[in-house]
Amino acid sequence: MKSQDIRTKFLEFFETKNHSIVPSAPMVLKDDPTLMFVNSGMAPFKEYFLGNAQPKNNRLVDSQKCLRVSGKHNDLEEVGYDTYHHTLFEMLGNWSFGDYFKKEAIAWAWELLTEVLKVDKDILYVTVFEGDKNDKLPMDQEAYDFWKEIIPEDRILMGNKKDNFWEMGEQGPCGPCSEIHVDIRSNEEKAKVPGKDLVNEEHPHVVEIWNLVFMQYNRKADGSLENLPNKHIDTGMGFERLCMVLQGVQSNYDTDVFTPLIREIETITEKEYGKNEKVDVAIRVISDHVRAVAFSIADGQLPSNTGAGYVIRRILRRAVRYGFTFLDKKEPFIFRLVDVLSEKMGASFPELKDQKQLIENVIKEEEQSFLRALDQGLILLDKIIDTTKGKEISGEKAFELYDTYGFPIDLTALILSEKGLSLDEEGFKNELDKQKNRSRAASEMTTDDWVILTEDSDELFVGYDALDADVQITRYRKVVSKKDGEMFQLVFSQTPFYAEGGGQVGDKGYIEATNGDVIYVLDTKKENNVIIHFTKNLPKNIDATFKAVVDSKQRYRTECNHTATHLLHQALREVLGEHVEQKGSAVHSKYLRFDFSHFSKVTTEQLRDVENFVNARIEGKLPLQEHRSISMEQAIDDGAMALFGEKYGDEVRAIRFGQSIELCGGTHVKNTADIWHFKIVSEGAVAAGIRRIEAITNDAVKDFYFENNRAFFEMKDLLNNAKEPIKALKTLQEENTGLKKQIESLLKDKAKNVKGELKNELSEINGIQFLARKIDLDAAGIKDVAFELGAQYKNLFLLFGAELNGKALLSCYISKELVAEKGLNAGQVVRELGKLIQGGGGGQPFFATAGGKNPSGIEDALIAAKKYIQ
User: Fold this and answer.
1) Which of 413, 535, 718, 811 is most buried, most CB within 10 Å of its CB?
2) Contact 38, 27 (CB under 8 A)
């Protein structure tokens, strides 16, 4: 059975059980501070489990793309070495929110597997939660009794808390679970060891394929459990593992989910899968990782050096280094796999086809960048080896190479072993642990349980229509972090404060009680569909009624920038073409930032056209036309643009200014005239095929022109109030260029004269022509003189010192013949003598330089130079 058909059969089966089929949510999370990526099937439904929202149908079914590489579910280093762990995987799930529970979940799972998909009952085992004394939880007798009605009791196994109690995190909904395991070993193997003895023992052919989670508890901050008001079902079946079972193979990588990618890697690299273990691991790593990276880029997450972007960069670089080390690929090639991937999975995930060109461009550029870094790392590693005494390389040096330059530690170890050297692995691990501890300490946060004051509040957002409202606090909790210290999160009965989302920053302001007690709201965010207000203090009377007031000046400036962002999007599509798509945005009160797909730099003329287009709409005084709640289908029919990587419900909000129509939950001006003026301040590349524009509006534009005007008059004053300042500046530049050429010529003449003097000062020591002296030339002049003298001698050792702009410079030249015969090294010389000028440096064995901040140490360095040849 093909993988496409397996996915379809799963969805259609639960559709017959009155479940609504919902599409996969974007894998990259934007409004959940607790997660960077969807790492389980339930993550997109957290708001329903927490009771903060209600789905239209209490029964849902989906195939959710998930990513597990960091945090609690860290599978990255296992990927490639076994045959069933992945970074990106699909989780087939059926969901019940306060509807059916254990009986139906168990019966339907068995029916689907054994009757619809025809999985042999004799290869299945199930596990049941055995209970836990610490949590005072009994064995899940209810689940056990339902299972024994349909499966022999010797196939029902007890599971501990680690394997059979599922938790969302340290706090929140949780519950016991039943796992369904499959034994796909040969009959001979089964005869030797029963399958039940291998369940949850990490055997590659006795694996869990489906987890049925019975959400019935809530884990509180103090670790205790309480019953949830409603019981829920959360199931997750690994799609790739199910395909392995139904397609009769022994590895996920032998299913048709992966084989097209593996065949393409074989073709590109001219390596054969299945012949060499190291090659096999590399091919599995690459075929897995390209999926994770491609889906992330399609969902709007580009590789970067921070946050979720850093995770994606790590995954891609791991794939590149396996290709580099084990498949002998020294040029980009992973981007070429995107074509096969989009062809295979594009029908189920159309974003892969729609974003194919962008995905290829970004991956190719990342590959090129990392391959350059690897080349640089190889040079640096050679330098470390050259300067190391003994056979072991310092773990600290190896960590610096890993941390600063991104050079993989396993590649370092491989190269060292080939050269007969070893790595101080314990030293490296210590440095890595220090870094992890620093990072963990910086991000550590403790969160108390919510203190509930009012249960029956709607907690509505009223900020589209008002900037103040009478509110009551419905719940609050304390959070403590190293970054922000002690903070409080408040939820109001209704709120005019806009919560950060859709690129727009959250509102600030204050709440005031009738007794004059004022609490400042420092930020507003949304978590699991709840609007949370951040404060440093709690009000004296927590039960009072407060007047909540938004900072109107900041909101107004932010609205100007948000509306301008919509007009900018429209302008770019008009000026550059309809291939332009939004790839990210940030709307602040002081500026706006807009990322978009485009294949080349935007020219000055095009930027001017974009500015003029936006300002024409501002001058046109276009009124806001808001459709606060219309169907998604109607909005699209009206011409609204839906953005990839965004999650939309059945009902959406559409914002229109003239011909600009977008789905948007943010706040906007009532009329484009309120923006006053729009000005682009920068345009540049973010990644291959992604450009970024930063722009300003309103007061910021006034400040911009005021500052430019001030700078212009200052410059004019420096030019003696020239009537034509641009012409005067050009004349000054031309004169400056001419003077620089004259100086260069004079310095060359000076160097020629100096060379004759230096030649006469050479002295022979132990068969070496030696000179160490101070010299009045710049760095380039010193290098020229050294190399010209070096061309005349094969046994030359020079050390020159110079004072330039209050700084010290040392330059060492050693004839290559001396380097080879005597083992001298200019780089080592300047590193050691550089300490005398309070600096350091390096270079090649025959020529190296060092800079320092202590010119008075030059004489000591020149005197010390003689020890290297005596």
Assistant:
1) 811
2) yes
